[in-house]
């Protein structure tokens, strides 16, 4: 622990007298485990101290002020959704404390999704559509980082084991916040950086030479509570349905167990796309299709017909015109979503 004999004796005497231990001993008795890397800055508190309210911010009991749609039936466990007015750090701490009767045992460790859109440290005043004062975004630098870090630490405690958190940021502090979230949620729980479109405005358009490129995106940092949690497959609708097509059955990853003879061909390196049983079944499917008078022009129709009748997504493989083995890619109206959400605008 790094304590010398004098310090050990001093601690014993203070404990026997019921005196508080100096802060210096805290770091020796309870050293912070170092991460692979971390963001270091002035004013950064230990996680343990934030959770123990040593930042001077304390949980405040919740009080019911208004009830909206009170006649609506509550959830099976008696829960009703709530809107909280007040300091969000105090609210997070009362949830973490898990003693308030309004939320005890109902929120902490049970939140499936947290989405936050914090200030961006723009050092600006913002006004509403009728020029009324909306909010100030004046906090920046390390004060901003610690402001957000405290809240993220508490949010991590609130998430369910299969929960997720998304933090909406712009270019100003996204890299620093990414480092902090790697510390808090663990780097292994980082899922994606999602790029979202924003409106582009630039006063530099009037000049021939400019100092920076116009900014046209926001960033969503996406983390899970545990690395084992899986997402449902997300899809996006295509502007027009794509017809089925044939593609090469051979793939470059080198897996000997996925190399087998089909159509008298066995690759010496790389692998086939599917394991042997699936490949042979796909070969029979195509032979059966041809025996019924099928042609390439009618394969899409046949595939959809079989899908509707039996619910089966049939595989097909064949020898292509060039003599290589090909597999059938079915028609589709959707595509698997990626992290580029440029078809969605945050606001205009």
Topology overview:
Layout: H1 5-17, H2 23-29, H3 47-51, H4 88-97, E1 111-116, E2 124-127, E3 133-137, H5 141-158, E4 159-169, H6 174-185, E5 190-197, E6 217-224, E7 235-242, E8 245-248, E9 250-251, E10 271-272, H7 276-291, H8 299-310, E11 317-319, E12 325-329, E13 332-336, E14 340-345
Parallel strand pairs: 1-4, 5-14
Antiparallel strand pairs: 2-3, 4-6, 5-6, 7-13, 8-12, 9-10, 11-12
Q: Largest beta sheet, briefly?
A: 5 strands, mixed
Number of strands: 14
Report the sheet-strand fraction. 15-25%
Alpha plus pi helix count:
8
Q: Please report the distance between the alpha carbons of the first and last residues.
A: 56 Å
According to CATH, the fold-level topology of the largest domain is Rossmann fold
* Overall radius of gyration: 29 Å
What is the level-2 CATH architecture name of the largest domain?
3-Layer(aba) Sandwich
- What class, by secondary structure content? alpha+beta
Work out the count of structural domains: 3
User: What's the overall geometry?
Assistant: elongated
- The strand order across the widest sheet is 1-4-6-5-14
Regions with pLDDT < 50 over 5+ consecutive residues? none
On the 0 to 100 scale, the average pLDDT is 90
Order of helices and strands: HHHHEEEHEHEEEEEEHHEEEE
**Which CATH first-tier class of the largest domain would you pick?**
Alpha Beta
Helix content: 25-40%
Oligomerization state of this entry?
A: single chain
